[in-house]
Design brief:
By secondary structure, the protein is mainly alpha-helical. 58% of the residues lie in helices and 11% in strands. The chain is flat. The chain starts with a strand and ends with a helix.
Length: 184
Amino acid sequence: MAGINIGGLMGNASGIPSELYPQVLGSYPFLNELVHQPFHFEKSVKPCSFYDYRMADSLPSVGGTILKYTIRLPWTLKNAITGDDKKKSSDNINYGVLNLTDKEVVVLKQAQQMLTAAVDKKSGLVSVSAEAGEPVLVAQFVQKAVDLLQKYVIDYKTQQARQHLDFVQQRFDEIKVEYEASQK
């Protein structure tokens, strides 16, 4: 469990209200970036991403292969002859919207269920916690979530400051042109 006061990072400038941080933690871009961070797992020798670790756990089992070539053999042969399996994979057209596989959705939901956030409205303190079977994984998961949340907030505030600077610079250029024209 970790508590941070992100509002104090860059002064009291306007930014993301602390009440929205739990929603940011549950958003697709945040979770997608978090699950692709490297973690040390008890069962793994070298670090790997949460996504890769969970996908390795969900590989098709021998029982699924046996089922495919025994009970489902007629449909397996039909799909092989007609090419239905190939059509499904080649019909992935990008319509400009997010298209996740079922396995990706499961991994993202697992990450979302592990991670929780609470906001103390008086102090603005955001508490991030996680729950899983591996204590070392939980500590890493929370730390990376906090680091990522801080990065998101800093990036958001930096983007706001750049937009404000661009606006002020455009107004300055306009007034400068008017001033020079009035001098002539």
